[in-house]
Amino acid sequence: MDRAIPDPTWKRLGFAERPDFHTSGLGVGIVIIDSIKPHHLVNHLNTRIKCVAVHENMTVTMRDISSMNREGDNRKGEHGLMSVLALAHEPILLEGQIHVGIAPAATFIILDHGAFTTGEGERLKKGMEWILEHGVEWNIKIILSTGWQALDNEVHLKNTSENSTVKALATAVQQGILVICSNGNTRLNNIMPPIQYLAVGGYVDRGKADRSFHVPFPDEPYGRNGDGHFRPDVLAPRLHITIPSYETEDSGQRVSFYGGTSGAAALVAGVAAHLFSQFPSLSSEMLRHLLVEHGEPLEGDDNMAPRINVENTICYMNRADKPMYITKTLPMISIKSQNLYSAIHSMDDIERALSLTVLVERDELSREELWSFTKDSSAIVRKIAVSTLREPMNEQERKLYWVYLMHETEGGVRGWYMHGLLQNAPKEEINNWIKWSTDINWSVRWCVSEYLAQYPECFPQLEKTQDPDAIHIKALPLRQWYTAL
Is 102:87 a contact under the CB 8 Å cutoff? Predict the structure, then answer.
């Protein structure tokens, strides 16, 4: 995409009218599982933004973010801040169009439980229990979890009930609170959220509300999770999400950009808060169903999840004759120890992947046996096998990696081959690496960039980009240099 300011995010989500700054999300509480530091861009929220922190000794404290000093102000790239800004930033006029947060009237509780460190599951459970007990007036309707996978190995496939976040949020789900989570940023990984969560994937809208510009994100993960359920539920824009510039005040920038499925999930959380505030009788299950049922499929995409379309959903809710929705419980696949070895030969690829994960974690497979699984018909199984192989053991195996990489059709599996080849990669291999600088898989291109960075005095560098429209542009200087050799 060029440097033009994208269309307002609310338009890109299918809103017919701009969300009202004073009423969109009013009376709805959103728990954002993340960390945040004070910033002047959230001061307008006053007492409607708080940080609940769970410490290592399991004590819980709460602070009003907007009233704290600004020691962390202008901190570049803070994840929690970007989510809040996508949800609640003040109106800004850019190139004749008004941009505003999706649910700026909501109440925001940032739950900082020390994510991605030992004991995080217990701390998350403690924090949620504290919020539900002490925050009745907040009317918590939504939990936004962009890092739900926690410390899990993201390639090894397991039933989602084993995940620490799923265990920690079980009580909230039972109480009817809607958990919205990101589905994942790359096909490198296998694990995807449980069916109880509204899983959000992304698509490329090129910053345009016009649906004719929208295309699938080429490295978007989708398929069945460890319980056998298709994920994600819905899609939202994952690039060029416009928020006010949160970086240094003298940077001269008016806007910053949020992205990935974290950004997409934050937008959907805003949509949910908007709908909950507009239709207070909506249940979490009904809202989930409506967003899926009245979304718009992406033509030519195998991913069955539709794009969010807010106006379609609102039009349905305003119908007098709308039918009721009945919740359905879907079956879950579970591999028991007694059928572990037979399941590895199952016709179902999820059963094979679950079984292979157990065998790998028990260290019961030889390297030769792992190589045999790199030929499995399922990319899920192949990813487990290749990631477990880690890196070539010798020069002969290194050559085999390159051969298998050349014939691999699935981007995530290619990413694991490239990650293995990146280890101890000699500069004499440059001929092999150049051709992968335009691969559709982010992880493959990341590995190429990291390889080149090991030899800055020898090779041009490859700038990383998530934007599929920019892949060839970023690789052009490298390709031109190589062609001129």
Answer: yes
* Whole-angstrom distance, CA of residue 195 vs CA of residue 160: 9
Is this prediction's pTM over 0.85?
yes
74: left (phi over 0), alpha (psi -120 to 50) or beta: left
Count Cβ atoms within 10 A of the Cβ of residue 482 and give its class: 0-12 exposed, 13-18 middle, 19 or more buried.
Answer: middle
| SS3 category, 255 | strand
Reading phi first (left if > 0) and then psi (alpha if -120 to 50, else beta), residue 230 is in beta
Nearest one of 82, 108, 373 to 246, comparing CA atoms: 82
- CA distances 153 to 19, 150, 238, Å, are 39, 9, 24
Decide if 350 contacts 333 (C-beta within 8 A): yes
Q: What angle do CA 80, 284, 229 make, to 5 degrees?
A: 85
Q: Which residue has the tokens 């920690």?
A: 168
In sequence order, the 6+-apart residues with CB closer than 8 A to the CB of 420 are: 386, 389, 390, 391, 392, 401
What's the token pair of residue 276? 């909950």
Cα separation, 444 vs 452, in Å, equals 13
Domains of the chain: 9-317 (3.40.50.200), 337-483 (no CATH)
Half-sphere exposure of 335 (CA within 13 A, CB side): 27
DSSP string, 246-266: -S-TTS--SEEEE-HHHHHHH
| Residue 365: both structure tokens together | 């497979």
Which token pair is 441? 């898989």
pLDDT tens digits, the chain, 485 residues: what are they? 445 899 999 999 999 999 999 999 999 999 999 999 888 999 999 999 999 999 999 999 999 887 655 555 555 558 999 999 999 999 999 999 999 999 999 999 999 999 889 999 999 999 999 999 998 999 999 999 998 888 899 999 999 999 999 999 999 999 999 999 999 999 999 999 999 999 999 999 999 999 999 999 999 999 999 999 999 999 999 999 999 988 755 445 688 999 999 999 999 999 999 999 999 999 999 999 999 999 999 987 889 999 999 999 999 999 877 776 655 666 777 666 557 778 999 999 999 999 999 999 999 999 999 999 999 999 999 999 999 999 999 999 999 999 999 999 999 999 999 999 999 999 999 999 999 999 999 999 999 999 999 999 999 999 999 999 999 999 999 999 999 98
Measure Cα distances from 314 to 200, 311, 379, 389 in Å: 19, 5, 39, 50
Token pair 């290194």: residue: 398
Determine phi and psi for 133, rounding to 5 degrees. Answer: -80, -40
